Amino acid sequence: MRRWIKDPLAILTGDTAGANSAGANSGGGAERGIVVEGGRIVELVGRGQEPAAPVDAVFDASRHVVLPGLVNTHHHFFQTLTRAHPDAINKELFPWLQALYPVWSRLTPEGFRLATRLALTELLMSGCTAASDHHYLFPDGLESAMDIQVEEATALGMRMTVTRGSMNLSAKDGGLPPDSVVQDEDTILSDCERVLSRYHDTSEGGLIRVALAPCAPFTVTKRLMTDSVGLAERFDCRLHTHLGETHDEDAYCLAHYGCRPVEYLEELGWMNERVWLAHGIHFNDDEVERLGSHRVGVSHCPTSNMVLASGQCRTKELEAMGAPVGLGVDGSASNDSSNLMEGVRHALMINRLTYGSGAVTHFDALRWATEGSARCLGRDDIGAIAVGKQADLAMYTLDELRFSGAGDPLAALVLCGAHKADRVMLAGEWKVEDGMPVGIDVERLRVEHGTAAKRFLEAL
């Protein structure tokens, strides 16, 4: 079927890398919309034009601002079960983790499935069409966590980079997590290979890809980090970890390894373009330059960074040095939501506070959530509205009171606080219609998830 998304109120197309509000392309020869066929974008229809060939269906987009589907580069789906948990609020990262690890150790497969389903649905409703989840918690009974996530993403029809996370240093080894949620190196590496062999799809438009994601320098051994590099090269997959999130992490690396986190990363063979890092806040000038020269990506998580007061990511310097910068919502116990469109606004605000109101625009924030995020995940088939790209679209209306009086539709999405897509298309198929996910009973999901979450409050 050839479908014409006709006459949008505004559309974000073209390469906005490095652009500001004067240089970015907000029409890009697609003022009359786009034509979708076979799951891809096959034509941009310019001002005063009609589609080059007959179409089978027309969608009137005159009320809609059209963006590429948003791409989330860092999350912890299981944490939707412990939002605003009384044991963890008003704490910085390390105390926050120490408070929640014992709670998370009670995670069950049933609870994890509901947490995954809710997080994916929440992301989708915000306009996100591709997501990465960093799952590193494996208490007894949750060995099939990756299989559960693939099943849930596939059922929803959403793109997902399933990151097989890991921890093998517990409290008895000088790490933070309790013994009950870590695994030994051989178990981890064996399952990494299993998950890669079974699910990793590098084909154009593939829904499921796999990345390997040792949790952080203070929760894994050197061998696990280096062996993960070997598996990534063998299976052509991405690598992910937390790095540079807090000053406590710097102190830990200096005390245990005699170097700063970036130097440690380089020692382990992780300084290459397969890698994207979560947070990446506390880098000095030399480290920013080294990361950029190796094209190491950074997932900027503005909401979580502000909630935990971790610091401010050096987004502009990283991009200037060549490092891809994407956006992540991070865990729903440090956000406390799974809404990437809200994250776009937060990214704009915290970066304006960092660099100045004229140095960071809504185009920058939108670019991080689309093109930049796609680069972090190693995908060149999504993240932009262009001929040949996958037909992944997020479409928003400006009908709410919050948008009344707005003059620039694209800027209004960010400045006025859009948080819910009216329509979402993924590979040419509607996944959200009239603000609701297709085929998902949201009310039932809320009840089932809320019931599962209650068990994490039982010990209070």
Describe this structure in words.
Keywords: Hydrolase, Metal-binding, Zinc. Its EC number is 3.5.4.32. This is 8-oxoguanine deaminase. 35% of the residues lie in helices and 19% in strands. It has 460 residues and is α/β, with parallel strands linked by helices. It folds into two domains: 124 residues, Urease, subunit C, domain 1, CATH 2.30.40.10; 307 residues, TIM Barrel. The strands form three sheets. An eight-stranded parallel sheet has the order 7-8-9-10-11-12-13-14. α3 links the parallel β8 and β9. α12 packs across α13. The chain is globular. About 2% of the residues have low confidence.
Mind sketching the topology for me?
Blueprint: E1 2-6, E2 10-11, E3 33-37, E4 40-44, E5 57-60, E6 64-68, E7 70-72, H1 93-104, H2 109-125, E8 128-135, H3 145-156, E9 159-166, H4 185-199, E10 208-214, H5 222-235, E11 238-243, H6 247-257, H7 261-267, E12 275-279, H8 285-293, E13 297-300, H9 302-307, H10 315-321, E14 325-327, H11 340-355, H12 362-376, E15 393-397, H13 409-415, E16 423-426, E17 429-433, E18 436-437, H14 442-454
Helix pairs in contact: 2-3, 2-14, 4-5, 8-10, 11-12, 12-13
Protein name: 8-oxoguanine deaminase
EC number: 3.5.4.32
Domain Amidohydrolase-related: 65-414
